Amino acid sequence: MSEETWKTGITKIEPNKIAYKGYRVEELMGRVPFADVVFLLLKGEMPSREQGILMDAMLVSSIDHGATPPSALAARTVASGGAPLTTAVAAGISSINRHHGGAIEGCMRVLLEAVERKRSSGKDVATLVGELVEEYKATKKRFPGYGHRVHTEDPRSTRLFAIAEELGLAGEYVEMAHSLRSAIKEKMGRDLPMNVDGAIATMLCEMDFPPEMSNGIFAISRSGGLVAQVYEEQTRMRPMRRIDPSAHEYDGPAEREVK
Amino acid sequence: MSEETWKTGITKIEPNKIAYKGYRVEELMGRVPFADVVFLLLKGEMPSREQGILMDAMLVSSIDHGATPPSALAARTVASGGAPLTTAVAAGISSINRHHGGAIEGCMRVLLEAVERKRSSGKDVATLVGELVEEYKATKKRFPGYGHRVHTEDPRSTRLFAIAEELGLAGEYVEMAHSLRSAIKEKMGRDLPMNVDGAIATMLCEMDFPPEMSNGIFAISRSGGLVAQVYEEQTRMRPMRRIDPSAHEYDGPAEREVK
Amino acid sequence: MSEETWKTGITKIEPNKIAYKGYRVEELMGRVPFADVVFLLLKGEMPSREQGILMDAMLVSSIDHGATPPSALAARTVASGGAPLTTAVAAGISSINRHHGGAIEGCMRVLLEAVERKRSSGKDVATLVGELVEEYKATKKRFPGYGHRVHTEDPRSTRLFAIAEELGLAGEYVEMAHSLRSAIKEKMGRDLPMNVDGAIATMLCEMDFPPEMSNGIFAISRSGGLVAQVYEEQTRMRPMRRIDPSAHEYDGPAEREVK
Amino acid sequence: MSEETWKTGITKIEPNKIAYKGYRVEELMGRVPFADVVFLLLKGEMPSREQGILMDAMLVSSIDHGATPPSALAARTVASGGAPLTTAVAAGISSINRHHGGAIEGCMRVLLEAVERKRSSGKDVATLVGELVEEYKATKKRFPGYGHRVHTEDPRSTRLFAIAEELGLAGEYVEMAHSLRSAIKEKMGRDLPMNVDGAIATMLCEMDFPPEMSNGIFAISRSGGLVAQVYEEQTRMRPMRRIDPSAHEYDGPAEREVK
Hints:
Four copies of one chain form a homotetramer. Chain A is mainly α. Helices cover 56% and strands 6% of the residues of chain A. Chain A contains eleven helices and five strands. Chain A has helices spanning 25-28, 34-43, 49-61, 70-80, 85-94, 102-121, 125-138, 155-166, 172-188, 196-206, 214-236, and strands spanning 6-8, 11-14, 17-20, 23-24, 248-250. The first copy, chain A, has a three-stranded antiparallel beta sheet with strand order 2-3-4. In chain A, 58% of the residues are buried. The mean pLDDT of chain A is 95. Chains C and D meet through strand 1, strand 2, strand 3, strand 4 and helix 1 of C and strand 1, strand 2, strand 3, strand 4 and helix 1 of D. Strand 5 of chain C pairs parallel with strand 1 (6-8) of chain D, so a sheet runs across the interface.
């Protein structure tokens, strides 16, 4: 015999009725965008209009990053052995961890702790980030979310911060993120702009997501790109090829304007 | 030494520049919804406004179906062993295959073939679906996308068809899907409404997606629910519990209106 | 409430008692080798002494093939993102499919059908393989299990056939495999030695395994190499490196004799 | 262009030549059992005859534990959605983590630290385990590797310790494991026999394996059972069934003697 009944607070299923967190699916469809429903499922409540837009921008920002991240390469490699599309996408998702996307969680923890310290100590932000950078310098730790292998000024970060400002969602985590960059520059002598992981971390803090969820949000976003990567591998490449991550070229549509 | 340079037509990455199918990411963020960008990555072109809304409604329709589908159970079970969130979500994604979500692909193939036959034979729809149902009856085959274990009239299907009508996207695949239901009722004596797989299949046909992509689109949608399921398992349940798929109860928010 | 009790015929678990297919685990441990227990679990009966040795040799033959197969690359790539060892190994396992290891199943089906045809037609082997090769030639099909990208005379195949001969396990499938090679050479003008997939396929036919199990047996074997590959990646390489499948060198122990 | 050549010390591949850690594959096949080759790949050197037997017994001890562990349930659930055998096995492997099999690593760390403390402090074992148990008691920590949900005296543990004694492989880790059980009984009032995770941990310490490898060794072993579980699910059960982990019955061969 089984154990006692267990509880779940996500989706209610009854004959001819499906409700996510209390909202009937047919009421949501066509009216509430996917990004808002993701927010709803993960946080339990609907986002404000502004939060919904920011959430959507975050999902768009990370949907793909070309053929070189471990997720794309793992997915393509598994597809190359002949596995079905979903098996290959799953392998890609499973590569999202400490080093791939993990800086979001790391950066969230830094920002959450910094704001917590600010609140409890009553110190001003400048003093506080100064102390923090000295601590990291002394222990040779790096700040997750700052700096990028490819991009010196990541367009995704710049845009996320701009959207947050426009929408009035830039609060003390955004302030902390900016101050930290200044302090790193001043005390470590390196101007490290926030990368997209850092920018997403800041936005997730502003919207009160738990850091443990961050890899999941990244996975939801990236699943879109992974389906595209695997489908391209399956339809355009020969099986069992050796996938050199460095030797590829973009041959898709030329640059164009969003209308 | 490596083989020759390989080509990819999805995302162009250059220092400080990321473009999906030619569109700069910062132009898309905050302006073009996630569902449209998924459509863009998979089809290569932006959806029309109407197609974007339909795509979004499809993604919302399948984001979760409670704790009993194999994807949710596999993900929760893997989480229960102590694996990270993304590993568990990946296991869930990997369960999406022939029997779980696979009816979308199966139904697409039926509809594509039926419309193709109609075009090439010049027969009217009623005659054609009549012949098709007789063939299936003779060989005891079932029509994928019709009938559901739980729902006799699936609210997601009803809503998807309604949205397609409203938006002027209901074309010959929608007509074929309806006619097939009538013919099944008439000739097999069973009134089998289209389930959500069938409805999604019909919409994907209307928007000219290849059937091979259908499981991938389902996976993108369901990734949202899987993150919620795994996070709930990790934070609310004890590890290594025996997850009885039948003995659970919903204890989330009560039914409420979308404002 | 749950559905009715379901049945499993593999392992019986009671307090302080574990029995695989009727054999108590403590009776097996230290007396019956792992390869024999794999055979037992998959076939339901203990192998003969000779079958056990052949099974063991098969498992050893496929345990690793360096850093280039999709399984090793997928596993290393997932590890590179920071995933745990088992997550990475799982990604490797999941790449074993139609093109990677799948020739075992394909070759088994050819051999099973060929021997079946021989039995039912009463034709001699030479006539039968002649007809088969003509059929494949006419439809431009290739024989799975023959030829290799790297090895012109695969030492694993040679050894497996030699072991089967020594042990008296070489029966009509071995005969058929050899005859097929001769007929391919004669009628297609190409001398394609059996690769290890073909040799394993032949042995699995001789031991009456179903073709549907073949990828699983390959996965059991390869899991050994994948743990070694992932552990090396985790302990010796830096995270998020770009893993070029062609640009690696062996720097392990020099060649040595088995004592 | 790619980065510099990277190094791997596991398998050397040249045309018509495959060598694991310096040993030609054809020399190993049929002469050196699979368990020894696993040991070779993971440790870099051949085991002694005694170590090979112990390694083999460990692999046999964990090959399956019926239908209820997360690995079996995850694998069956993924198979139930229609995924291929290897995809389902991979999901099972990926569930092996902190709570499922993870006690091996935890127990190894306890034993390694305890023996290290003994060596550095010069204290006798009884004193040392006494202190250790008091520490755990004070901080309400549990000793991984002791106690089992189902088995009060695990036949696998008993047998592994017996084999180690017989073979002369029972050294200071075995002594420490026994002493710890006595101290737990004396100071915590609970007689907790070592479970199979604890026994394997002890043996891996005696053979000088790193704790980080332990989940991998468990995965190699369990891959055997997972293939059997998935194959049974695929051939004996209907797709998409609800797999109640508690409502199953063994209907395989009756108990029998190893001949």
